[in-house]
Amino acid sequence: MSVLRWMINIVLFLIGAVVAAMMTTGADSHFESDGQSVTVSLLHMVAAKQVAFVDGWLGVTAAAGESGDQIALDIAQCERQFTVPAGLSVSKGDIVYITVADVTGHTPNDTAYSTSAGAGKIAFFKATSNKDTTNNVVTGIVLPNLAS
Questions:
Q1: Is pTM beyond 0.85 here?
Q2: In three state form, how does the secondary structure of the chain look?
């Protein structure tokens, strides 16, 4: 191979590498986790297995923690039992929302729970049963964290 042909091949290779590097933004992804939980940084104390809104995520705490701790917040789409406010009527098929502005520390206040969508609300779960009015428990499937 002549020196000129060799130099041309090198230049073409380098041009191709530059073009490929420019075109691959976002095209190369790698598995990070199963997406069933997210690590959050606490500003307030939380108990284990409590509903919490932390770092823009609504879920269930995997462990107790204090301000400054990092814990896993379970956001898995699974069926759970939730204790809801006595005054909240929930029927099978209803979506229960949390109003993010109505959270104290990381804990949603009773008034944060509703069955109507709106600005500043996150759909939390879809009820798979009617609320048991004796103990205010309803089962539901956790929904993806999407603000409405």
A1: no
A2: CCHHHHHHHHHHHHHHHHHHHHHCCCCCCCCCCCCCEEEEECCCCECCCCEEEECCEEEEECCCECCCCEEEEECCCCEEEEECCCCCCCCCCCEEEEEHHHEECCEECHHHEECCCCCCEEEEEEECCCCECCCCEEEEEECCCCEC
